[in-house]
């Protein structure tokens, strides 16, 4: 490492994150938690520590290392974004303040920090005990949504249509963390992918999403970019930038979920990381937007990667297999070779019954594809899903 070459400390990175750092000419140190899926094979130095459980040992290991130029820690997942902020503060490296990431992680805290600065707040009650839930549900009214304040991937989310459903759900649910009871919003649901840096916040793309609907609202597909009317686009941009300012988010990608109602956009929740479900890959496929490289360039004050040139449309669709029949051994090679298909994945091992889908981790598999326009994309995705799920 040269005396001026910046070093990116990467927490459990995917191949694309390492490639982004290398494209900027950065030196790399990879942090590997031996209890988690392994990071990519690499010739870069590797620090092994259980960073997903605690940042303390990681901080001390990194403090003891010799650094010859600027350094910052980067994590682009739900846990990594928080841990990297803590590491950077403890070691005096540039990055986001931990308070910003804690606000994203705690849905109740996010609503408290943002208040009415990002449009009309969603009516909600924070419940710290099970006994507070039914009075809160009565206060919010039906229908409503109950969810953990720190949940991800639709885990624990439940739509409650009436008092009977509420009483049954509260009696049967696991309650190990505070929950939110929120008003149920109606409209069109989107996510907004944004990038933040010294120049401010930039909307990268608006993503259309599909879900299973009530009661769990598990996401079944995403398509980006999609266009909104000029008025809606302006309102969404104002909401997202106001929210990011409120939490003092300074560097990197964010993923904000909104409901576009008849009265305008409403904030559902937000995350200080790229969107999951391969949204970061879809941004590259469709628009040439590499949020990993852009983040590292912003933190180190390097020239921003060249302007994106892509003008295509990308999407992911989750597949559902027959839950009454054990999974057979499926080859994904044929689907992977179809025009526009970028990735195919099956989550259920052969011989097992596909599970009921009540959270993101239950989904059976997916296909990612890209097309020159929405019609071509949908044709490619429909053909790929149909081929993947056809009986053997």
Automatic annotation (TrEMBL):
<keyword id="KW-0436">Ligase</keyword>
<dbReference type="InterPro" id="IPR011761">
    <property type="entry name" value="ATP-grasp"/>
</dbReference>
<dbReference type="InterPro" id="IPR052032">
    <property type="entry name" value="ATP-dep_AA_Ligase"/>
</dbReference>
<keyword id="KW-0547">Nucleotide-binding</keyword>
<dbReference type="Pfam" id="PF18603">
    <property type="entry name" value="LAL_C2"/>
</dbReference>
<dbReference type="Pfam" id="PF13535">
    <property type="entry name" value="ATP-grasp_4"/>
</dbReference>
<protein>
    <submittedName>
        <fullName>ATP-grasp domain-containing protein</fullName>
    </submittedName>
</protein>
<dbReference type="InterPro" id="IPR040570">
    <property type="entry name" value="LAL_C2"/>
</dbReference>
<keyword id="KW-0067">ATP-binding</keyword>
<feature type="domain" description="ATP-grasp">
    <location>
        <begin position="111"/>
        <end position="300"/>
    </location>
</feature>
């Amino acid at each position: 490492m040269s005396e001026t070459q910046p070093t990116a400390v990467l927490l459990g990175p995917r191949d694309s994150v390492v490639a982004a750092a290398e494209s900027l000419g950065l030196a790399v140190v990879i942090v590997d938690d031996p209890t988690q899926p392994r990071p990519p094979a690499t010739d870069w130095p590797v620090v092994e520590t259980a960073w997903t459980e605690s940042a303390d040992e990681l901080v001390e290991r990194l403090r003891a290392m010799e650094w010859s130029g600027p350094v910052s820690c980067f994590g682009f997942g739900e846990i990594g974004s928080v841990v990297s902020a803590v590491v950077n503060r403890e070691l005096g490296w540039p990055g986001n303040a931990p308070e910003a990431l804690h606000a994203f992680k705690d849905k109740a805290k996010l609503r408290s920090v943002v208040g009415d600065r990002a449009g009309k707040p969603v009516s909600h009650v924070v419940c710290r005990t099970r006994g507070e839930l039914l009075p809160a549900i009565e206060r919010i009214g039906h229908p409503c949504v109950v969810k953990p304040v720190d949940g991800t991937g639709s885990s624990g989310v439940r739509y409650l249509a009436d008092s009977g459903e509420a009483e049954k759900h509260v009696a049967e649910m696991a309650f190990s963390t505070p929950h939110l009871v929120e008003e149920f919003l109606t409209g069109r649901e989107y996510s907004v992918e944004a990038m933040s840096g010294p120049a401010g916040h930039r909307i990268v793309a608006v993503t259309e999403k599909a879900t299973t609907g009530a009661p769990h609202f598990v996401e079944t597909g995403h398509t980006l970019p999609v266009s909104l009317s000029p008025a809606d686009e302006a309102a969404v941009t104002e909401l997202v930038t106001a929210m990011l300012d409120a939490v003092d988010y300074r560097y990197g990608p964010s993923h904000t979920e909104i409901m576009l109602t008849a009265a305008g956009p409403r904030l559902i929740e937000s995350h200080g990381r790229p969107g999951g479900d391969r949204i970061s890959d879809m941004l590259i496929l469709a628009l040439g937007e590499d949020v990993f490289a852009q983040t590292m360039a912003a933190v180190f004050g390097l020239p921003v990667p060249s302007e994106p040139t892509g003008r295509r449309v990308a999407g992911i669709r989750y597949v559902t297999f027959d839950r009454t029949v054990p999974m057979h051994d499926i080859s994904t090679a044929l689907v992977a070779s179809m025009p526009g298909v970028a990735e195919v994945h099956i989550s259920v091992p052969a011989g097992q019954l596909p599970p009921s889908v009540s959270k993101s981790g239950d989904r059976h598999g997916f296909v990612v594809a890209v097309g020159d326009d929405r019609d071509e994309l949908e044709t490619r995705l429909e053909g790929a899903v149909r081929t993947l799920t056809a009986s053997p």
